[in-house]
Amino acid sequence: MRPWTGSWRWIMLILFAWGTLLFYIGGHLVRDNDHPDHSS
């Protein structure tokens, strides 16, 4: 196994995790801004 194969796999995993996290947080922020009255 080449060393870079594991590296790009970790990089893809980290990027995917960050993308999902940012998308999740961003979606909630936009949702809260669009519906301020529904915030408990």
TrEMBL record:
The keyword Transmembrane helix applies. The chain crosses the membrane at residues 12-30. It comes from the Eukaryota. Keywords: Membrane, Transmembrane, Transmembrane helix. The keyword Membrane applies. This is Fucosyltransferase 8. It comes from Homo sapiens (Human). The gene is FUT8.
